[in-house]
Design a protein that fits this description.
Length: about 425
């Protein structure tokens, strides 16, 4: 019976193929009665399944999938231990997440310079040029700060890391930043800013001793608030972007971990941080690039020609605020996942208190670059940006001694000097 199903002509491979697809019963026959072929098909199926798993795009902006199995160099533990050794009286050992990022690099260097033990962690994702992140890593390497290349969602790695290094503090700066990108890759915000934050807090609360946490929230939590200047007491329930919503979620999550596990947590709401080694997705950075290339730049305005303004804050001022937050952080009260008493929970604005219109930013850049910008003024699209930001910093001034001292012109001068040096090929001397 089965032999009757055999195709009459088998000499031509082309014909053979067409028959295979056109007569399923024949294909079935061949599969069923050739065990080796069946094994081969199964093997191929499993192989392609594995290939699909390994080659599928990274989840949520990170380099790796959320089920993390980070491959690290065999000597990573030795490097982490060495990097973590403090050389100052403070005896601080700080884990800096997002250490290859803009703020993370500056904070890690400042901590190392004063003798704290510092270990960095970053997944080097490609949200913006990874070359810049690698160059920042080189800076940190030279100063003896080791960066572990891993995702904060790697719970197993974090557990191991907290076992081998007893961190006194975590400076948590790893996040999916940027407001507009959330419309292209919303999942990356949940991955890093929500899942990642929770994974890090889980590892921190389980650690013995529990570290104190200082982490970056954002001025974007003020969203559509119109009362100025923005104060920590204002309500923050009108986020204008998914980025803002995830930062707001982070603040609520922080409250929970403080409440249940006794983790000491300080949130810092940064206001448009700028400076050398900055972020290429931010206006001051890509305006500089485009002005130098004589490319048109888009300047947004609100309805009825309302000015768009930002409370630009220079990186050195923000770094001082971060260090002051670490220095004034009280110890967590829990241990081994159990709360033993009430712990500190704080939130501060770290801004500059003097919003500057974006047109003014452009005119300063024109002057510094000695190039006239080709400007196009457009109505601001509804993509998550807000019209203005303006920080009230009296709480940070009072409790952290925070005193920003760099005006936009001075700060941009330093940025432009760095930019020209970095992209002009003198990367080594650009710090
Ligand atoms: N720069 C600003 O103006 C500003 C303003 C408000 C808030 N913030 C916040 O400050 C922090 C630092 O910002 P930045 O400007 O340095 O940004 P950045 O993008 O330069 O740095 C963030 C770093 O985190 C890393 N990262 C992202 N997701 C990660 C993950 N899942 N695991 C491990 N590493 C991951 C990235 O690779 C990057 O190097 C962020 O939390 C950001 O949201 C920044």
């Amino acid at each position: 019976m089965m032999t009757q199903l055999k195709p009459p002509i088998l000499s031509s491979s082309h014909l053979d193929t067409s028959i295979k697809f056109k007569t399923p019963s024949y294909a079935f026959y061949r599969l069923r009665f050739h065990p080796t072929r069946l094994t081969l098909w199964s093997f191929l199926f499993l192989f392609f399944l594995l290939l699909f798993f390994l080659c599928s795009p990274p989840s949520a902006g990170g380099k790796r999938r959320s089920l993390q199995t980070t491959r690290l160099p065999s000597n990573w533990e030795v490097k982490a231990r060495n990097s973590a050794r403090p050389q100052s009286k403070t005896d601080f050992t700080v884990l800096v997440t997002g250490a290859a990022g803009f703020v993370g690099t500056h904070v890690a260097i400042a901590l190392k310079n004063r003798g704290d033990g510092v270990v960095g962690l970053d997944n080097f994702n490609n949200y913006y040029e990874t070359g810049l992140k690698k160059a920042r890593k080189t800076l940190l390497d030279r100063r003896g700060v080791y960066i572990i290349e891993a995702d904060i969602n790697d719970a197993a790695l974090l557990t191991k890391l907290f076992e081998i290094v007893h961190f006194t503090h975590v400076m948590h700066l790893a996040a999916q930043a940027g407001v507009r990108y959330a419309m292209h890759n919303p999942a990356s915000y949940i991955h890093s800013n929500v899942n990642g934050f929770v994974t890090l807090l889980e590892a921190s609360k389980n650690a013995n001793p529990q570290p104190s946490i200082v982490w970056a929230s954002s001025s974007s939590v003020y969203g559509l608030n119109s009362k100025v200047p923005f104060s920590e007491k204002d309500t923050t329930d009108q986020p204008a972007s998914l980025y803002a919503a995830t930062k707001k979620a982070g603040e609520e999550i922080a409250h929970t971990y403080n409440h249940i596990y006794g983790l000491s947590i300080t949130g810092l709401r940064f206001f448009t941080v700028y400076g050398p080694w900055g972020r290429p997705d931010m206006a001051y950075y890509f305006f500089t690039k485009d002005i130098l290339r004589r490319k048109e730049i888009k300047i947004f305005e609100g309805a009825d020609h309302a000015t768009v303004a930002r409370d630009f804050t220079y990186i050195d001022d923000v770094v001082k605020g971060c260090l002051a937050a670490l220095d004034t952080a009280k110890k967590s009260t829990g241990s081994g996942g159990k709360k033993r008493g009430t712990a500190q929970l704080r939130i501060y604005n770290l801004g500059n208190t003097s919003p500057v219109p974006v047109v003014k930013l452009v005119s300063i850049l024109e002057k510094l670059l000695k190039v006239k910008a080709k400007k196009r003024v457009l109505q601001m699209p509804r993509n998550g940006d807000v019209l203005f930001t303006h920080a009230n910093i009296s709480l940070a001034r009072k409790e952290l001694g925070y005193k920003p001292s760099t005006d936009l012109e001075t700060g941009l001068k330093k940025f432009v000097k760095w930019y020209l040096s970095y992209y002009g090929g003198k990367k080594k001397s650009a710090w």
